[in-house]
Amino acid sequence: MPPSSTVEAPLRASTTAARPSASAAETSAPYTLPDLVCFAHLHWDFVWQRPQHLLSRFAEHGRVFYVEDAFYHADDLIEPHIEIKERQNGLKVVVAHLPQRLRHDEAAADQAQFELLSQFFNEQGLTNYVFWYYTPMALGKSRHFQPVLTVYDCMDELAAFKFAPPELKKRELELFEKADLVFTGGQTLYEAKREQHADAHAFPSSIDKAHFGQARGPLAEPADQAGIAHPRIGFFGVVDERLDIELLRALSQQHPKWQFVIIGPVVKIDPAILPRTPNVHYLGGKDYKELPSYLKGWDVATLLFADNESTKFISPTKTPEYLAAGNPVVSTPIRDVVRPYGDLNLVQIADNPADFGKAIEKALTQRDDADWRQRTDAYLATISWDQTWQAMVGLMQQRLAAKTPDAATTTQAGAPLVETKVSEVPLPPASAN
User: Which residue intervals are annotated with compositional bias (Low complexity) in the record (predicted)?
Assistant: First the structure.
């Protein structure tokens, strides 16, 4: 998922904000952990994906604070302050608001956020807490706190993404030193990160089967898709540098009777470079709860990912989501799709327009294949976000118990909120204008 260095108002007001399904968790396993503070580069209200699946489950059992990137104002009329927004299961989204003068002074901006978070932690009584990182860049504002446990949930190779901060690789090395546990968003990413951390664990993309399984039952056709002819070849996800634009262009030109439905916000790339043939339909971002109704109307689902540095380590969540909806799937040869889905002959793999077209032709008949349906459902029965979350909790409890027998349940009396020595970075003065 793309890193975000600054938060802009249009993005924060995006209508693509996602919501969880009614069945946020299939089971409810009791557990005890300290408060959880997550540092993320993804906005909670943007697209419902791995962080939301996991942290909404944590929030069912305890306090969760989701710290987003700072929001920079266009002027210096405001003083640094924190905004709190309550979301699913009482989870609190924490956003630091900073004046324009700090936008290009990273050290001062980090110091301002550190001071805001220190005050917020005191106000909330946060003295016994786990830090959960999605971005190493958050160390700038958080490295001086003293969590009882540090988890790095490495869901992507962020350094390979477009516009990645130059400091990201260096910060990740620092985070590896601090982390007690490293979770990875896929097997390929695990194979890379296990060389950098002794306690790394692979947790590939999982599935909310009940939510996406709705596509197998009666659902109303969305109005903006209803008028599109069949066969429909679909894709949903963020449309960015990972999308194989030339593959989409070639397929749409070579198969004019196929209708290509693309769902998702366009970010980090110029929309003008996208194919504009009459049979390609860009429907924009959709709410998470709406996705099953779109999937139900597709004949084949695709993973149109390019072969580049940004896709080398991805483990697309949409693979099991497509399958849970009952859709045949064709994908480019992303390693974490080939293993296991291609190897198990659940998803067809093709690496060029001609072969991809042939695979779609085969997939158009696959719904009648009872053996494929049975094997697909048998595999999906082995994975779920609940199982992933519970396994993560188990590892966290083990590491806490190894540190101190009562660390998971007892606040250390008198423990300092932060290290006693903190480097102070003076904030630039407010503009006189």
Answer: 12-25
